[in-house]
Amino acid sequence: MSLGALLHSAWEAAREGVLLFQSDQVLYLNPAAARLLGVEREKVVGRPLLLALRDHRLEALCRIGGEAAVESRGRTLWAKALPGVLLLWDRSEEKSRLEALEESSRTLAHEFRTPVAGMLSLLEALLGGLKGEEAQEALQMLYQEAQRLRRLVEDLPLSRRPGLERTFALEELQGRLERFLAPLLAEKSAWIRWQTPHTVRANPDAVYQALLNLLENALKYGAGKEIHVVSEEIPGEVRLEVRNEGEPLKDFERLFQAGQRGVHAANVRGTGLGLALVRRLAAGWGGRAYGRALENGNAFGLTFPLQTSPNLENQSTKTPV
């Protein structure tokens, strides 16, 4: 086989796009280039270059040479132009992976923020001279936050894995959440009223983190002093809601997208990742995260698949949260 035939065979099988041109006319393009450019080879060979490229940026690159990333036809293309040759690589998947990695990094930083902030507050209190029973309580809370941080490191993101989920009473989370939120509750002169008699099956750390994010949002953005945490059984699932007074919102779905914040959040520090994280955590135990308007406020909630097996309902709940 001649060298020309070998080169042609290699170009035809290449994953990268190869386009040959002369005097602004297409001489050849391989199947990969036709796919990346979204054209049919037989319709563009021998025709003007722009007819195949359909992008003035790529045409200019062919004239002046060089390399560039170009968003074209819903793809991210990396193009390299040499005299008479245009090489194309599809970088769409790579770009998506990088964007996903960046979003995961932001989300993981958000997950770490809460336990680290809690530990720093407790350490400051101990260094400030806390003694006796209060010091012992602070040490116990510090130990709990350190344990949660360890579990986050061992399993990030929090997911639905055997050994992490257990059946537990939602009431188990109440004391720990109120202790952690005590400074913010005092700052806002607010309080929490609990009505959470139900038992669910999930990762307790994931539920704690999700519920903490919802309570922090209610304290930061709600207008009333009293926050209600209510669980109730509805067909097929248990619903856990954080309800607060305030102006009813109109668009809840947007708030669950990463980086999105409400209309009342302009003067409140935050990353806009809290509710996106809540939704991801809820999906991990097979539930949902949602928001809905109330008559004089808003409710943000979590759902849990309803446990119907007697074996699950009778499991021990003594594992530390």
Quickly list its features.
single chain; 321 residues; alpha+beta; Heat Shock Protein 90; 3 domains; five-stranded antiparallel sheet; 11 helices; elongated; disordered C terminus; protein kinase activator activity
Q: Which ranges are low-confidence, i.e. pLDDT below 50, for 5 or more consecutive residues?
A: 259-272, 309-321
Mean pLDDT: 82
Q: Which structural class do the helices and strands define?
A: alpha+beta
Could you give a short account of the major beta sheet? 5 strands, antiparallel
Protein name: histidine kinase
Pfam family, one: HisKA
Catalytic activity: ATP + protein L-histidine = ADP + protein N-phospho-L-histidine
GO biological process, one term: osmosensory signaling via phosphorelay pathway
Protein model, in words:
This protein has helices spanning 3-13, 31-37, 41-44, 49-53, 56-64, 92-127, 132-154, 172-188, 204-221, 274-284, 310-313; strands at 17-22, 25-29, 66-72, 75-82, 85-90, 166-169, 191-195, 199-202, 226-234, 237-245, 289-294, 297-305. It is of the alpha+beta class. The chain has 3 domains: 3-90, PAS domain (Beta-Lactamase), CATH 3.30.450; 92-157; 159-313, 2-Layer Sandwich (Heat Shock Protein 90), CATH 3.30.565. Strand 1 (17-22) and strand 2 form a beta hairpin. Helix 8 runs parallel beside helix 9 and helix 9 runs antiparallel to helix 10 (274-284). The relative contact order is 0.09. Mean pLDDT is 82; it is low at 259-272 and 309-321.
